[in-house]
Design a protein that fits this description.
24 strands, Rossmann fold, four-stranded mixed β-sheet, 22% strand, five-stranded mixed β-sheet, alpha/beta, 3 domains
Length: 488
């Protein structure tokens, strides 16, 4: 890791000033089909937009919505709002009208930065009291009335305990709740990332996840913390694999579906050939032995043949330079992890939630136990509640509470600072966490049998023919599963 946690600014308001000074003309951001944006240029753009926001009347603590796809302008807007002491309110571009209205209304957003005129029109219909500014208009906001010194003084006045973002997360009941995250919460995650993510200038992170999602924002910060280059996808999800080969990232955050899709496609190609499935299984077997340093001489020829026919091609599909890939948000199929590990594609499974600042545990280089979601993230404590097996987490990254909902906050955050995740799990002797289900997801059949649906649903989804599976059976004689087929 190039950057150290002692060097970063205590609040993210000055992050681009720090990064611009430290990394200068190194590439920071890159959009598809465009040249790189340097760290110095990123700093200058944030200064320009930030001064424009101040001239437009944005005050410290104001809630500012951002509505758009993952693109360079989202990052400009993000850092500019933080620099002037605003509170970012991310809105998913796929959100329905009622969700847009709720998030903007509940947060009290007075200004929304939108990707397009179409998005601005949606905001006008859902939250008529909010002003909108298009991404393309941000650089043109009048700013002459705010000198650079005034902007820098505003950024320097932001404190670690100030609110940084209101990230809305859906619950099992009621409308989404706004999770209040402070600059200190984000800082704690960055500090942990400096210990767990190896990176530096010359490295590239490919980002296709929506920046409205907390994980994508954390990746954004971490990449720029260590001087890497953040490469944005072109906007078409079906082109992600092709773009990976083009970008050749060293770091890839993802959800399990991308990795499982690659596994499924390769397995399907193998099964279409006579004896292909058996050769595929043998390749995975010897690849795993090699990954564990236990490859016998008798299997070396098989391994070398698989290196040419399979392993190298799979690595090439990810660009050929990948050395750190993260999967989270949902369980990943064990067979997929085995396949990728056999091909020397390092994928690390982690666990977190918005209320925990996005992180609780993580597998990492040198500390991996497959089938678990890793050990506690640096700075985070984990324990298992004795009475029901619920996973509890505590640390400086845990959120400040739900916006405007003290009662809901008390339900998940106890007096000792432990976050009650609602997930069930167990810790082994070395502190690796295994998730076993959801506390409120138990199905009780009419015979009184308790069933955790998650493991059964996960098992059904191991078939490459199944895209989703949902188990039902509460108060019924036996459980049934609703399955959707994978059209591809």
């Amino acid at each position: 890791m190039t950057a150290t946690t002692k060097e970063r600014p205590p609040a993210l308001a000055e992050f681009t000033e720090w990064a611009g000074e430290r990394y200068g003309e190194l590439p920071a951001l890159r959009a598809k089909g465009a040249g790189p944006v340097s760290y110095g240029r990123l700093r200058d753009r944030v200064r320009e937009i930030g001064r424009g926001l101040m001239a437009a009347g944005v005050s410290p603590g104001d809630r500012i919505g951002i509505l758009g796809e993952t693109r360079v302008e989202w990052t400009y807007a993000h850092f500019a709002v933080l620099a002037v002491g605003g509170v970012v309110v991310p809105v998913y571009p796929t959100a329905g009208e009622s969700e847009v209205a709720w998030v903007l209304g509940d947060s009290g957003a007075r200004l929304v930065l939108c990707e397009s005129a179409a998005q601005a029109k949606r905001v006008a219909g859902a939250a008529p009291g909010a002003r909108t500014v298009l991404f393309d208009e941000l650089g043109g906001l009048p700013r002459d009335s705010v000198p650079l010194d005034g902007f820098l003084a505003r950024a320097a006045s932001v404190r670690p305990d100030d609110l940084c973002s209101l990230v809305y997360t859906s619950g099992t009941t009621g409308p989404p709740k706004g999770c209040g995250l402070t600059h200190a919460n984000f800082g704690a995650v960055l500090d942990g990332g400096a210990e767990t993510i190896d990176g530096g200038p010359g490295d590239r992170t490919y980002l296709y996840l929506p920046l409205a999602h907390l994980l994508a924002q954390l990746i954004e910060f971490n990449t720029l913390l260590f001087g890497g280059e953040l490469c944005y996808f072109g906007g078409r999800i079906e082109e992600v694999i092709g773009e990976l080969a083009e970008v050749a990232p060293t770091h890839l955050p993802s959800v399990p579906r991308l990795f499982e899709k690659v596994h499924s496609v390769v397995l399907g190609l193998a099964e279409s050939q006579e004896g292909g499935k058996e050769r595929f299984q043998e390749a995975v077997r010897v690849g795993l032995l090699a990954a564990e340093g236990r490859l016998p001489d008798a299997d070396r020829a098989t391994y070398e043949a698989a290196e040419k026919s399979l392993y190298s091609l799979v690595r090439g599909a990810f660009g050929g330079r990948l050395r750190w890939a993260l999967t989270g948000a949902a369980p990943i199929a064990p067979q997929t992890l085995d396949f990728l590990r056999a091909c020397s594609v390092p994928v690390y499974e982690g666990y977190g939630m918005t209320e925990s600042g996005g992180v609780i545990s993580l597998n990492r280089p040198g500390a991996v136990r497959y089938g678990t979601v890793g050990q506690a993230y640096p700075g985070c404590e984990i324990r298992i509640a004795e009475e029901d097996g619920e996973v509890l987490a505590r640390g400086p990254m845990v959120f400040a509470g739900y916006h405007g909902d003290t009662a809901a906050t008390r339900q998940v955050l106890d007096a000792d600072g432990w976050l009650h995740t609602g997930d069930l799990g167990c810790l082994d002797a070395d502190g690796y966490l295994t998730l076993t289900g959801r506390k409120k997801d138990l199905i009780i059949t009419s015979a009184g049998k308790n069933l955790a649906p998650a493991p059964i649903e996960h098992a059904l989804q191991q078939s490459r023919y199944v895209s989703h599976a949902v188990l039902a059976g509460d108060r019924r004689p036996h459980p049934v599963a609703l399955i959707t087929l994978d059209a591809e």
